[in-house]
Amino acid sequence: MKFIGLIFAFLGLYCLAIGISMGIEGIKAKSWPTAKGRIIKSRVEELRTSSKIRIARLCLNLDYLYLVGNQVFEGHRLNSGWRCFASENYIKNILKKYPVGKNVLVHYNPQKPQISLLEPGLNWSVFLMIGLGLITISITYPIVKTIFRKKCR
Fold first, then answer.
1. Nearest-CA neighbor of 72 among 35, 120, 30, 29?
2. How many CA within 13 A on the CB side of residue 122?
3. Are 107 and 118 in contact (CB under 8 A)?
4. Which residues are within 8 A (CB) of 104 and not within 5 positions of it... i.e. 6 or more apart?
5. I need a labelling partner for 128 at 20 to 30 A (CA). Which of 27, 62, 79, 139 fits?
6. Percent of the chain residues past pLDDT 90, beyond the cut
7. What is the mean pLDDT of residues 57-69?
8. Residues 96, 98: Cα–Cα separation, whole Å
9. Which of 146, 153, 152 is CA-nearest to residue 2?
10. Dist CA 113 CA 125 (whole Å)
11. How many CB atoms lie within 10 A of CB 18?
12. Can you say whether residue 80 is alpha, beta or left, with left for phi > 0 and alpha for psi between -120 and 50 degrees?
């Protein structure tokens, strides 16, 4: 019981940390400089393991080129969140919004111009990760608290 409680506590902290870092990047990206870019690949795929077991339903495979100074970069990220989605309609709308050949405005990190995204700000996956982290921590808190009380006695 102790071991499971600690594993879930660390899992909750991990989810919380990932969600917060995704959110911070998304917020910071709003103030990043922008460059003109062009979509070179826009399609959906299923992620599968080497034994062909599907691990994610629909994943966005989006590539774009953009120019910063005299250097061309290739980006792959829509936003600071996940690239896999459960909703077929949601991903179809993204594919319609970003077809191959479309000119786009790319937000890039001024310190590391190879880091970029098309849609800055917060998205649903940030809130999902933070929510999962908080729920997991709140459920395991009484267990971990009991474990440490018993050790202190």
1. 35
2. 11
3. yes
4. 36, 37, 38, 39, 64, 98, 118
5. 62
6. 41
7. 90
8. 6
9. 146
10. 24
11. 16
12. alpha
DSSP reduced 3-state for 92: helix
pTM, full prediction = 0.76
Q: How far, in Å, CA of 57 to CA of 86, rounded?
A: 6
Question: What's the token pair of residue 123?
Answer: 């998205």
Token representation of residue 140: 């395991």
In the numeric block, which tokens belong to residue 7?
A: 């594993």
Distance (Å, rounded) from C-alpha 128 to C-alpha 86? 13
Pair type for strands 116-117 and 34-48: unpaired
Tell me the average pLDDT of the chain: 85
Kind and range of the H or E run holding 38 = strand 34-48
Expressed in angstroms, the distance from the first to the final Cα of the chain is 18
Amino acid in position 67: L
